[in-house]
Amino acid sequence: MTLKLGQVTTVVLSSSVLAQEALQKQDLAFSSRAIPNAIHALHQCRDSVIWLPVDHRWRCLRKILNSSLFSGARLDASSSLRRRKVEELVAYAGKCCRDGKAVDVGRAAFRTSLNVLSNTIFSVDLADPSEDTAQEFRDLVWSIMVEAGRPNLVDYFPVTATLDPQGVRRRMTAYFGRVLELFGGLIHERLAMRRQKKRAAENDALDALLNIREEDRGEIDRMCLVRPFPHSLSL
């Protein structure tokens, strides 16, 4: 059956036969995602492996992710990091109990998940409550999640994209710009450390990506480096 959502025609596969046809036999034709207008801010969809169509660039980036970020060996090597962050979460909950304070479970779990991810990639805690930058980053991630999940009139009436009547894309442009600025600062700092020989050749995912970039600049560029996980946090 089909549904007409504004100017967008949506096809619903309501039988196992058609689902098999679309997901197995014609999977390449149906593999690309419909990109919300908000994700076009700062051309985010052009550099994110989540939104790229299945082509050479997508396969290249996916290969890098599988081999350098999410390989079994790298995940095993970071198991102690994950264990330490969980221990910190338990210790935080215990301290709150001793002090008679309520535990914001959602915020604590978000902080732990973010720190595991940021340490895996950047070797830093982006959610350290004592740092203003961490608070700003948490607020930015939350704002991106809210805007990405907000029903947007432009997605159903593309003709209104230029007007951006709800201001979603305008706000997302500001949020993405700030996130990329923060990531760019971390990458610039790491490049300076590598030039001064203050860091080992490969300690985290960012070092691995920089090594790939130095070996073959055509395989991964700086814009891909500064977009490692904004969407993985919100999806």
UniProtKB/TrEMBL annotation:
InterPro entries according to UniProt: Cyt_P450, Cyt_P450_sf
GO terms, molecular function: heme binding; iron ion binding; monooxygenase activity; oxidoreductase activity, acting on paired donors, with incorporation or reduction of molecular oxygen
Transmembrane segments annotated in the record for this chain: none
PANTHER family (UniProt xref): CYTOCHROME P450 FAMILY 1 (PTHR24299), CYTOCHROME P450 SUPERFAMILY PROTEIN (PTHR24299:SF59)
Protein name, per record: Uncharacterized protein
Organism: Actinidia rufa
